[in-house]
Task: inverse folding
């Protein structure tokens, strides 16, 4: 019986390939920044670009960056209180935000408005290899009355514009 246990333990320890996980998303927790975000984004001043590794894929959308570093000054882009309400980061000191809504246009027709976040992976994905991806979304309840049913991610070898 003892001999079987040692053989089994040997097989587990020395014969099995070790599996490790690598995070392929640089700055996925939005902690690294070059300058503190001061305000919500505007078309000429995209605060998301202060968060290292992240951009807005097109200049019409104004994705935002919020960080605790802003709390000493204006809390428009602060954490946990910002222009949009109260939100704690999942972990750390920062998070990103975007609008995704249907807006009534001047002619009364609905206009679908979407903002996006974009980053490059640290290495290319490999064919026939399994990957796991997850992210967290929080609805801004203080300033929003509607929400989307689905929010997803796109993996592409090209920039999204």
Result:
């Amino acid at each position: 019986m003892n001999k079987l246990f040692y053989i089994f333990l040997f097989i587990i320890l020395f014969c099995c390939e070790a599996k490790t996980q690598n995070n392929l998303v640089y700055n996925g927790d939005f902690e690294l920044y070059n300058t503190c975000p001061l305000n919500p984004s505007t078309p000429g001043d995209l605060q998301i670009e202060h968060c290292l590794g992240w951009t807005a894929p097109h200049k019409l959308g104004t994705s935002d960056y919020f960080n605790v570093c802003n709390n000493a000054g204006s809390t428009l882009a602060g954490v946990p209180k910002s222009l949009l309400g109260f939100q704690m980061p999942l972990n750390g000191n920062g998070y990103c935000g975007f609008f995704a809504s249907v807006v009534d246009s001047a002619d009364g027709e609905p206009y679908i408005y979407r903002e996006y976040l974009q980053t490059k992976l640290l290495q290319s994905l490999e064919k026939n290899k399994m990957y796991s991806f997850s992210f967290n979304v929080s609805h801004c309840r203080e300033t929003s009355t509607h929400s989307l049913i689905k929010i997803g991610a796109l993996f592409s070898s090209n920039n999204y514009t």
Remarks:
- Strands lie at 54-55, 64-67, 81-82, 85-86, 94-97, 100-104, 110-114, 118-119.
